[in-house]
Amino acid sequence: MANSKREKDFNGNDEFKAVTEGLKKIYNQKIKALETTYNFEGFHSPPLTDSDIEAKPIVLLMGQYSTGKTTFIKYLLEREYPGSHIGVEPTTDRFVAVMNGVENKVIPGNAAAVDSQLPFQGLNKHGQAFLSRFQVSQLPSPVLENMSIIDTPGILAGDKQRLDRGYDFTAVIEWFAERADLILLFFDSHKLDISNEFKLAISSLRGQEEKVRVLLNKADMVDGQQLMRVYGAMMWSLGKVIQTPEVMRVFLGSFWSEKPPNVFEDCRALLDAEQKDMLRSLRELPHNATIRKVNEIVKRARLAKVHAYIIGHLKKEMPSMFGKTAKQNELMEKLDKEFVKIQQKYHLPAGDFPNVERFKVGLSVYKFDKFHNLKIQLIEKAEDALSQDLPKLMAKLPQGNRVLPPTERNPFDMTLSTSKNSSKLDLPPSYWDFSAINKQEAIAQFNSLRPNNGKVSGESVKPVLMETGLEKTVLAKVWKLADWDEDGYMDIDQFAVALHLCKAVTSGGELPEELPPALKPSSKL
């Protein structure tokens, strides 16, 4: 299956590696010391390792039992991952990180949590009870070269499962959600109930809403009318759980590895379009993940800077000899007022300060007189990273049009007709010359599509060509002829040729099997 269509679609590139290397250098040289000096780990999260920054985009799958999470992974990989189980009963009983590897291998949770090459060292804080229910499954897959997938246990209704886990399921979900680039909530078209534990798990995603997508799976198990009702019921249920004014993106899909015989086909075109949108969002993860990592480092640097000011201030307020305990208690009692003092003294944004009550919990295990004094040089390094290094790094991110996989390069996405067109052309030979094209007429229409780097995408051109009234099979061939560099985009010359070819067909002519060389401008020959 190594050369399968789906795996080819996920093949990526190395254009973001330089940015990742730069990010590691900036963090290790200018931000990490600020975190470790002022006990940032005790209040927020542990220092990032190189493997955390290098980690491929992570897709977190969540849902109740038998909603198709593991089957979805099988659909993507076109094979089962080591240790997977699929069935109508609750099958996945642990967290599984599905990752790329040279061979099929299962790494137990305890070993994975101490492996510096894997981004899971932070899971040690969840204890042995969790690590015994966690594993890394590795297998060679082109899809996994660009992402890692976290399969989670199916969530059941009732308190027994929640109480008997032995670890805090919601806290683990929160840990993975913070590091995930995409979170997929799975719903089955036949099971829309949301159990108490699933509600808690969804609530733990607060603050990560921009990453969350909803997948209504097995959508072809109901007919079109029922699907509309199921969709409405699901959105109503979600509205009571997810407290956000923004509308979440919902995908409809049916990711069977083997399609059952009793499916409904009346919404097949809709489901196919939705599945393509879903796969496109996965393909775009490497680009978005690099931007997200830069964003996370910026967020950490701002938090670490404010944290250092807070700790330095508390240290400075402590007496040198007597009354330390009383002074510490006093500072804890009026911590909110101390925050205001720090904010005004150093001109810091109020939004960068932590929650007062949560910060008090963190402070309760420390003695303030043991804190380090404020070191301005560490602050200056972090400010330099925020004002100079990180903006320069963002500027290095590739701009312009992304490289499209072959299956996305023709916006009409139709299998071209295998019938042979006659090589005899009804139109005069002069028609098939670039000089016959009214390029000026096409320029205004081309510019209205807002070209990027002199090119427009297939999705932008598609409505224009559809207005000709030609069949999609014909338009698919027009695109194939006009997009002679086969990159899925058109410059002004290609756009003008496409319009010219459409005009040829509407005038009664036939499309040639290959684009006549004379129809290309001399600069493109």
Automatic annotation (TrEMBL):
The keyword Cell membrane applies. Residues 438-525 form the EH domain. Residues 400-421 are annotated as: Disordered. Residues 470-505 form the EF-hand domain. It is found in: Cell membrane; Endosome membrane. Keywords: Calcium, Cell membrane, Endosome, Hydrolase, Membrane, Metal-binding, Nucleotide-binding. GO terms for cellular component: plasma membrane; recycling endosome membrane. GO terms for biological process: endocytosis; endosomal transport. Its main location: membrane. CDD domains: EH, EHD. This is P-loop containing nucleoside triphosphate hydrolase protein. Residues 53-287 form the Dynamin-type G domain. It is a peripheral membrane protein. GO terms for molecular function: calcium ion binding; GTP binding; hydrolase activity; molecular adaptor activity.
